Amino acid sequence: MTLGSSAVAAETLEVGVDPELSDAAESSRRHGRTPGQIAWDRLKVDKVAIVCAVIVVFFILIAVLAPLLVKLEGETLNAFHPELINRRNTLPTIGTTAQHWFGVEPRTGRDLFALWAYGAQPSLTIGFLAAVSSTVVGIVMGLLAGYLGGIVDRVISWVIDFFLSLPYLLFVFALVPIVQNRVGGGRILTAEETSSLRFWVLLIILILFGWIGLARLIRGEVFSLREREFVQAAKVIGVPTRQILVKEILPNLVGPIIVSASIAVPGYIAAEATLSFLGAGLVEPTPSWGRTISVASGGNFSAYPLHLWPPVLGVALLVLALSLLGESIRDAFDPTTRR
Amino acid sequence: MFIYIARRIALGVSVLLVTLVVTFLIFFAGPADPAQSLCAENRCPAVKLEQIRTSMGLDRPISVQFAEYFQGLFVGRDITDGGNVNHCSAPCLGYSFHNHLQVSDEVFRRFPTTVALALLAMVVFLGVGVSLGVVAATRRGSAFDRTLVGVSQVFGAIPYIVVALLFALYFTVLYPILPQTHPFSDGFGPWIVGLIAPAIVLGLVTSTAYVRYTRAQMVDTLAQDYVRTARSKGISGRSVIYKHGLRAALSPVLTILGLDMAGLLSGTLITEQIFSVDGLGKLAITALIQTDDLPIIMGTVLLGCVIVVALNIVVDIAYSFVDPRVRLS
Predict the structure, then answer these.
(1) A221/chain B closest Cα distance in angstroms
(2) Is the pTM value of this prediction over 0.90?
């Protein structure tokens, strides 16, 4: 059968159905959409969300293709080029060239494009890993506190209040060397080992401080959900607690969870950049935008601003796009907004 | 009212006590060895480490060390460093064996700077945020409103270090339009003038969130029935907005402010590092990165916690004045 005749067959089939019936089927399908589907349909027509998603995908591609792009440029990460450095003032003798797309680093002569492209990797990895993990921890804590109540709730709520009144940036500063010692077992490590250890330490600390908000939110929601009839009914017919939590309560919280996770990602990326900038984050040789910004804003800034701008624009654009995307997702899930 | 304040302070004190115990355990019972960071050699010989531990009193049981630290906070204590005995008067936050200074002196010297920066920034972001939010809400849907919300969304979303750093580089270094920062010891005038630029940046960036909170709250409040009633009674537009609308809209804004104190302190620390303001944040960062000086870091953590808890209490009391229902609960 040819393509044309099948289309005709479909058309006749369509005509054959009673128009009123097909309308009814259509509308029942529309009413049957889940909140997730509604949100997705709204997101697909949101221009801001689309532009932001394109920017995010661009940076993900940069991160994934970093080795390929750097090879295309004809460079390697962390290769020193002392011949491109002016010996007297330690500034590079070149700007952007075909060989070095973003120039080279003052003093060491490392290729800045390689540092930039590879720098997107830890940013995005930490952002997404921390968001997923802290969301899971937040869900579990919130569900337990909200559903079990009593002593469990009091302990978890107290921990939440305690964390909220901590000066967390200072605490993170203090914790970085301590967690590093505990995880590293106090051995003397090579630069590579310290660097990859720091990555995990940073991730652990971000998760430690990151679950609080979602846990509070979920706890409050579960408090009201557990008194609803469908949960009471499930309880009465003897559904085990674990199943009530996962099958009855959790599906009602998908919206807030997705919104909270999507807003968390840019927060973690900014936190990684901030901590690395301040010296409590990633260390050499793992490339990091935050650390490059810190180095580039030093004495050489006015003479060689090319060092500063790519990581600044990178982190600013990526975090901005992810935040606005998060807000669009929030709006898409919010039935009171009309867009 | 009095009972409410007393209860609020009791809660704050309990949080502070727990923080004290937790930080002490993390720092002195934790895996980080304070003696290690004092040893000049890279691979410290065990004998020397033992010597340092004995001289610092780190070889005694943790409960004894904690009791001593706790005593130091309230009545002061003597600390031996090498052969010398230093009297550390209350509140004693310990002794930095690294640069042979008392932590309390180091920390309290910088305390006014950090608090002044935080308060100045708070004045900026509450003033700018609330007033712009009110104006945007009363002109809802206008070009001004939409521009303001858009701009606040963009500047609020870009990482703070980027905004602050570019501002600092371009306006205090490259084109020195705004005054440079000075330590407190240079005199009150230059000190407070130097805090203007960092306070403006921190305040303006923080205000982006408050513009949106205030606007949302005002829009909600102005749509309430009692506001319509007030209008229909012939009360002037201005009076309705400020007397009937703003007061009700402010209490949720104050809730956010209360929850935001730890964030404000973090913002202050980052700002200090970027503008090289000689405050607690810079002290902590230097202690962490250059010297691994645990007593200094612990002192700043404790003091930072005191600041957050104290500001929280102030906000809660202010809250009970704005929203009388709070006192009853």
Answers:
(1) 19
(2) no
